[in-house]
Design brief:
Blueprint (H helix, E strand, L loop, with lengths): L1 E2 L13 H10 L4 E8 L4 H14 L6 E8 L7 H10 L4 E5 L11 H7 L4 E3 L6 H10 L2 E5 L8 H11 L3 E4 L11 H10 L4 H15 L1
Parallel strand pairs: 1-2, 2-3, 3-4, 4-5, 5-6, 6-7
Bound molecules: zinc ion (2 copies).
One zinc ion binds next to loops.
Length: 211
């Protein structure tokens, strides 16, 4: 089990990275990406701090992955900030997509895909052309375990299947109780319209790409 999107105290999460790590270890995870909310003001702070604990925990299981979630960044700045984040050492760049429960700027999904984000989180009512483009560019679309963001999981799965886009199941945890067990992640994916075989395949593909 692994998860490539959660939050620590370096943005609005409740736990320090060491506790996230400990809690997912108990849940049997092999890897966890911490991807705090970032914009131009704090991406270096987040990445720098996450790389410190990553280095300290090197060789331990679960593997810690240092990331960011670019959040409410104006769409025209997203491609550049993805590059800057990678330059600062981010191993995974998530973009906070156009969830229907927040006023995320229109054009964010497209910018994230064109900018080559690793994962477009909770893409809401993403358009068909954007899903097609995500498939071409290898951008993973997220099935979200988070309340509200998860309302459109079925839509995302439906279009991803149609156009062959890759999917990833993430908790987007902010609190300890948000962390997913493997069993719950599996059920969320089934509830979004995937078969058991498809969920297993998704996990295989995500593992190959990010681990
Ligand atoms: Zn988000
Ligand atoms: Zn998030």
């Amino acid at each position: 089990m692994f998860d490539f999107h959660c939050h620590s105290v370096f943005s609005d999460g409740e736990l320090i990275p060491a506790e996230i790590w400990r809690r997912v270890k108990v849940l049997g995870y092999t890897a966890i990406a911490i991807t705090d909310h970032a914009d131009h003001s704090n991406f270096e702070f987040i990445i720098g701090n996450l790389l410190k604990i990553k280095k300290a925990f090197e060789g331990l299981t679960p593997r810690l992955i240092a990331g960011v979630e670019l959040t409410h960044v104006p769409p025209e700045f997203i491609p550049e900030l993805i590059k800057e984040s990678r330059k600062a050492g981010a191993e995974i760049v998530v973009v906070h997509g156009e969830t229907i429960v927040e006023p995320v700027a229109e054009g964010t999904n497209l910018s994230a895909i064109l900018g080559g984000a690793d994962i477009l989180a909770h893409p809401g009512l993403i358009k068909e052309e954007e899903v097609k483009l995500a498939a071409e560019k290898g951008v993973f679309l997220e099935i979200s375990g988070r309340k509200g963001h998860s309302f459109t999981n079925g839509h995302v799965v439906n279009l991803a299947k149609k156009y062959g886009a890759n999917l990833v199941i993430n908790s987007d945890a902010h609190s300890p109780s948000d962390l997913l067990t493997k069993d719950l992640a599996f059920k969320i994916a089934l509830g979004a319209g995937l078969t058991s075989e498809e969920v297993k395949k998704i996990w295989e593909i995500a593992k190959k790409r990010f681990l």
